[in-house]
Amino acid sequence: MKNRVYFFDTTLRDGEQSPGATMNLQEKLRLAHQLEVLGVDIMEAGFPASSPGDFEAVRRIAEQANNIQVAGLARCTPADIDRCWEAIRGAKNPRLHVFVSTSPLHMRHKLRKSPDEVLAMAVTGVRRCAALTDNVEFSCEDFSRSEGDFVCRVVEAAIKAGATTINLPDTVGYAVPEEFAARIAYVITNTPNSDKAVFSVHCHNDLGLAVANTLAAFRVGVRQAEVTLGGIGERAGNAALEEVVMSLRVRHDHFGLEHNIVTEQLYPSCRLLSMTIGQPIPHNKAIVGVNAFAHESGIHQDGMLKHRETYEIMTPESVGRTESSLVIGKHSGRNAVRNKFESLGYKLDEEQLNLLFEAVKKLADRKKTLHDDDLMALVQEEIYRMPDRIRLRHVSIQSSDTGGVPPTAAVIMDVDGVERSGAGFGVGPVDALFNVIADIVGREPELEQYAINAITGGTDAQGEVSVRLREGNVYALGRGAHPDIFVASARAYVNALNHLFAKEEEGPRLHCQLN
Ligand code: KIV
Ligand code: ZN
After folding, report:
1. CA 340 to CA 360: how far, in whole Å?
2. Where in the chain is CATH 3.20.20.70?
3. How many angstroms separate the alpha carbon of residue 415 from the centre of ligand 2?
4. Residues 225-244, mean pLDDT to the nearest whole number
5. CATH domain 6-277 topology
6. Is the distance from CB of 345 to CB of 34 less than 8 angstroms?
7. Is 0.70 surpassed by the pTM of this model?
8. Contact predicate 210/244, CB 8 Å
9. Quick check: CB of 171 below 6 Å from ligand 1?
């Protein structure tokens, strides 16, 4: 269909490359399922050759996927392509995605290859893919700094070799909308077989123009957008899926393009991502930030009361910002709890349901009504952390505003299955807590960032803490939620330490830019 835009989500690949956004296998599988619910056409599950962990995650995602296409990224080398195919071949609709740089800068300094050598790499790579599947995407890395006629030669050859999607990335976020659209139009017009492929863009946000560039590309015939939830990704990130989608919906009069995204799943998807990676959604974030539908000024409020459309171009409901009517509380039975989690997209086995049921009861003792976000936070706490090396058992904090006894923390935890405990002081209670935990595990990571946020309104809300730790060049994020903010803080710190250990065990990962 000429007017159909395909959404290619790369949250699990480019997104996961963003500093601190690593996810464990369970988390990736959950997010992959959500991408399917959201109506994404193609999800890029990872870069299988980059590490054994990535390979396994892509393989499991491919196995779990229903109709969504599952793409894996590979460089144009036989080893990368074969490894990638091995990981995705279990999917009902696998896609091989290969790339090579086409800009003079990258060819000369990164690849140290001549343009003809690069062209040959592209052809051999695509041919190898096409022998395995007829769903092959080819990307000209650093397209926006590449020379137009050379790109036309490479694209023509890639299509001849079997590529069915041609991706033209703005790898370094250098493009500006009119110029980017003109470059793409040049390639489409001057590549003789361009009608045999779907053209795609993949825009980075270094100048804050990723969404604008993506939208500009639609105007010249591009029909696939590579995006991520919340715009996460390398450096300043990628084009945000929710912004591109809602631009198409709200300005259908301008674009006249159709897509398959269920817009009511936008907020739940971004919220799930934010909980998973422990990065709160910025308040002023378009579409999904808390302020996106908040009207503060008196004039705006007055206008809204008279007629909603005076100051609102889309409704909160249209992006899924609604509380569901099935409320969970102290008296909810197992079935209600199971149904609720299923409606939130979680398939639970009996052991997981038992764990969650207990956790729901405990939380409901402290908090009258449990909102969807509370329940999602519980899954994160109770289910997705099971394979962690270190686990918190008990935390006790003493703080006061007098100068007498300094803030004190006592902690009991399991370290590799062995119970360990400790106590100590700090400048404040959080400092005391983190010092004690670091002592128990014998590590001294630097705390780079600490943020706290209330998951819902009300003084009985759960606190959601995210921390960022650094040890040498390795970063790790962690998050924790609990009605007691010190317990939430301890959980976040322990979660970050577990991510740090996981990174150590996995060893260095190859990122695609290291060609
Ligand atoms: O930014 C980029 O160019 C990429 C490619 C691998 C598509 O991520
Ligand atoms: Zn990228």
Report:
1. 11
2. 6-277
3. 37
4. 97
5. TIM Barrel (3.20.20)
6. yes
7. yes
8. no
9. yes
